[in-house]
Write a structure and sequence with these properties.
The structure is a single chain. 58% of the residues lie in helices and 0% in strands. The protein has one domain. It has 11 helices and no strands. It has 223 residues and is mainly alpha-helical.
Length: 223
């Protein structure tokens, strides 16, 4: 991908914005999406991911939160909505798939919208440690440069602001990458078909080793 000088400047500014405050990640994700839309759709996509994108049949319609709350405890849908409730996240904050977009744009919206389900499926919490471990999982599975960009900025933040957590975060990043290498590719999964299954069954089916749990958040990102 050939970036214009202004895009390089914006990405550099975004990198240091994440390094200063990882809660700036949403803005940098928006910037990356906007840049990607101006480039050849598949310039930076591996052959394996290109095949997954072209075979993607759509994410399906996620039931409203009130329906998910009626599911049994321990199911993917119930734990997903619990995750959303506990961290103040709402479906309205998610991207809508473009009605007239190309296959990659639809797939990209699916990936953004399923981010929190990946948290539940993998077991990573929404603190900085968990977010960086999940980015390592993305890197292992998708072979795209942007997760590495986020990882580098996040690790710089840890070194700069929270050095006492450095080795703990490094261990989590290594674990997340290993998880991603061993798991079934999650990008094309239609999660709506698995919402009533216990999380443990979903993990077994997708060969996901659950993340190591920690007693408290490591560098919290949400209130």
């Amino acid at each position: 991908m050939q970036l214009s000088p202004i895009d390089r400047f914006r990405l550099a500014r975004g990198f240091f914005a994440i390094a200063r405050d990882p809660r700036n990640l949403d803005g940098v994700l928006d910037l990356a999406d906007n840049i990607a839309k101006r480039e050849n759709a598949f310039d930076n996509v591996s052959e394996e991911l290109r095949d997954e994108v072209m075979a993607f049949e759509g994410a399906g319609v996620m039931p409203p939160p009130e329906e998910l709350r009626e599911l049994a405890d321990g199911t993917l849908g119930r734990e997903y909505v619990r995750f959303m409730d506990e961290h103040g996240l709402t479906p309205e904050a998610l991207d809508r798939a473009p009605e007239d977009g190309n296959q990659l744009e639809v797939f990209r919206a699916h990936m953004r919208n399923s981010h929190d389900i990946w948290h539940v499926a993998t077991g990573w919490t929404p603190d900085l440690l968990g977010e960086l471990a999940l980015q390592a999982f993305y890197l292992a599975q998708l072979r795209l440069p942007f997760p590495a960009f986020v990882l580098a900025a996040g690790m710089l933040h840890v070194v700069w602001k929270s050095p006492r957590h450095f080795y703990e975060v490094v261990d989590a990043v290594a674990e997340g990458y290993r998880q991603g290498r061993e798991a079934t590719p999650l990008a094309p999964i239609q999660w709506v078909k698995m919402l009533d299954l216990p999380v443990n069954e979903v993990r077994d089916a997708l060969q996901i080793a659950p993340a190591t749990q920690r007693p408290e958040p490591v560098i919290p990102l949400v209130a």
